[in-house]
Request: fold
Amino acid sequence: MSRIEILGLTQQFKGHRAVDEVDLVIEDGDFVVLLGPSGCGKTTLLRMIAGLLEPTAGRIVIDGQDVTDLPSKKRNLAMVFQSYALYPHLSVAKNLAFPLAVLRMPKEERDTRVRDVAATLGLDKLLQRKPRELSGGQRQRVAVGRALVRQPSAYLMDEPLSNLDAKLRTATRQELSELHARLAATFVYVTHDQVEAMTMATKIVVLDAGRIEQAGTPEEIYHRPASVFVAGFVGAPPMNLVPAVAGSAAGVVTASASGMDARLWQGEVDERDVVIGVRPEHLRVADSATGALRVHGVVERIENLGSEQVLYLRAGDALLTARGDGLGGYRRGDAIVLGAALERIHLFDPETGRRLEWVSDSDELPAIEASVPIPA
Reply:
């Protein structure tokens, strides 16, 4: 399998930078998901890795070899497209064998690889069917199988599940995850669907406007978002983000907004604007919360999802969301007080959008390496 290094990769279209000096290392065996909204540059980045698009600047190195100027066919990478791109007049067996025929592989070896891949993907009873006789999920497996038969260095996938219904998408996600585990192969996968990213990736790369906002494990992306953009994009419902003012009172760092206040750490900081973030599932009814954050609001709407409720409340000028299984007793217009534990509170710089961390030499305070520390 392959290690892929992306160094300063840039793609510019008529004055617009679709990908802007991206640096990224994809380790051998990683399942890397390029995640972001439409137009963020993720497909453009994937197509440059595949050799289907020539970069404006930067380099692509695969297993120590600079392949920036190599054509796609010489990179030993397999691509799975959103549209599947199956040949409608060929059987499943011939669709699977087509890449091997292009490589002029002997027929006996081709047939062996096709049988092995068909068995792996549960297609062995469908080999004589045409694509029009297959379900969406079966077509998707054929598209993946056509990539597998080549035994490439890495697999590149561009939103391969977007044409499937919700139930089939869930099942196919599981199949792809199991396939990655069996092959121990390098996967690079493009999607705008955060559920796909969180459930399949070993590493998520969040893109916005052609730049990497954050790269990390699903747990890091979700629990320690590096920016307001990541915090608001990842999570359903997204993180609550409220403009506030941080300062000090009686030796304690505080942050406050209309309808919200937080007592954070012992220490002194100059007064400054911040953005407070807290995820909906981390807000709890204050009687059962022992945390540092307090929210005073009025219920505007409740959605009952069966196993839990999603509550929308107005706190000052902010509309917040809480999610959990203990919120069903409220009605529209009820006053409510919610709280959150200190470790669930996030702070961001309102100008740069980047995450803020408290940094102190005191053993009594959280000692966290900060990308953007709050000035003491």
The mean pLDDT is 88.
